[in-house]
Amino acid sequence: MAFRQALQLAACGLAGGSAAVLFSAVAVGKPRAGGDAEPRVVEPPAWAGAARPGPGVWDPNWDRREPLSLVNLRKRSLEPGEEELTSRLDHCKAKATRHIFLIRHSQYHVDASLEKDRTLTPLGREQAELTGLRLASLGLKFNKIVHSSMTRAVETTDIISKHLPGVCKVSTDLLREGAPIEPDPPVSHWKPEAVQYYEDGARIEAAFRNYIHRADAKQQEDSYEIFICHANVIRYIVCRALQFPPEGWLRLSLNNGSITHLVVRPDGRVALRALGDTGFMPPDKISRS
């Protein structure tokens, strides 16, 4: 009985709460099966000023993949028994760990007026080679490489992928560089227009929700995935994944070609194993442009 009461209270907690704003650009999840026409409420993202847990309070359902939140308790007219409900919850539990490697692109020609001309410098190409060698030396079976569609990220990916033969590459606009959220404290030398935060923030938040989460319940083995993108995107993702205030993203600094390693456990816990690692590069090959 206590078990059933606890589940009922949890279900009420999931269904209740304050009204949320719908943001279709970053909506996650799928409509309920069976033609359920009930509107789906999506919590507002962090960049929109949504209420977040207080300092030091971890939200175990941060990726909305807690088993209890995936089971539709109202799908049946009769209340499920404890054994059936336990089986349904076990079916939704993640079983594998995701290892996420976030790679910042190498040094590029920052003065080019057109994005397509912002290609890697000779040093940048050397950095990408070193990063590729480092990833290959880990001896891991990488599942895929997802990269930003911007020129410097594409070129970095092409060089790194030579050291990881057979690993498929996927390009996405979601990981393009941008202004994720107004930083705190602000900086005087970089002040994008408010509309840029609004547009880029929605996209980068969508990238976080799409790519950073615990493994799917169907995944049986641990995965090792590489994401090659940009400093602002990586810094924002790290803050969001660790449930640190995302406004602090600009306090982090990342070298070109650096490796950041996030681990997402089946229970949703997240650990940062490396942040902006370039210890595999000689000192004269390190840059942050």
Automatic annotation (TrEMBL):
InterPro entries assigned to the protein according to its UniProt record, in alphabetical order: His_Pase_superF_clade-1, His_PPase_superfam, Mito_Ser/Thr_phosphatase
Annotated catalysed reactions: O-phospho-L-seryl-[protein] + H2O = L-seryl-[protein] + phosphate; O-phospho-L-threonyl-[protein] + H2O = L-threonyl-[protein] + phosphate
Keyword set, alphabetical order: Hydrolase, Membrane, Mitochondrion, Mitochondrion outer membrane, Necrosis
Matching SMART domains: PGAM
Localization per Swiss-Prot or TrEMBL: Mitochondrion outer membrane
SUPFAM superfamilies xref list: Phosphoglycerate mutase-like
One GO location term (cellular component): mitochondrial outer membrane
GO molecular function terms noted in the UniProt entry: protein serine/threonine phosphatase activity
EC number per UniProt: 3.1.3.16
Main location: mitochondrion
Coiled coil feature spans: none
GO biological process, alphabetically ordered: positive regulation of mitochondrial fission; programmed cell death
Subunit details: Dimer. Forms a ternary complex with NFE2L2 and KEAP1. Interacts with BCL2L1 and MAP3K5. Upon TNF-induced necrosis, forms in complex with RIPK1, RIPK3 and MLKL; the formation of this complex leads to PGAM5 phosphorylation. Isoform 2, but not isoform 1, interacts with DNM1L; this interaction leads to DNM1L dephosphorylation and activation and eventually to mitochondria fragmentation.
Similarity field: Belongs to the phosphoglycerate mutase family. BPG-dependent PGAM subfamily.
Role, per record: Mitochondrial serine/threonine phosphatase that dephosphorylates various substrates and thus plays a role in different biological processes including cellular senescence or mitophagy. Modulates cellular senescence by regulating mitochondrial dynamics. Mechanistically, participates in mitochondrial fission through dephosphorylating DNM1L/DRP1. Additionally, dephosphorylates MFN2 in a stress-sensitive manner and consequently protects it from ubiquitination and degradation to promote mitochondrial network formation.
Listed name of the protein: Serine/threonine-protein phosphatase PGAM5, mitochondrial
Organism field: Muntiacus muntjak (Barking deer)
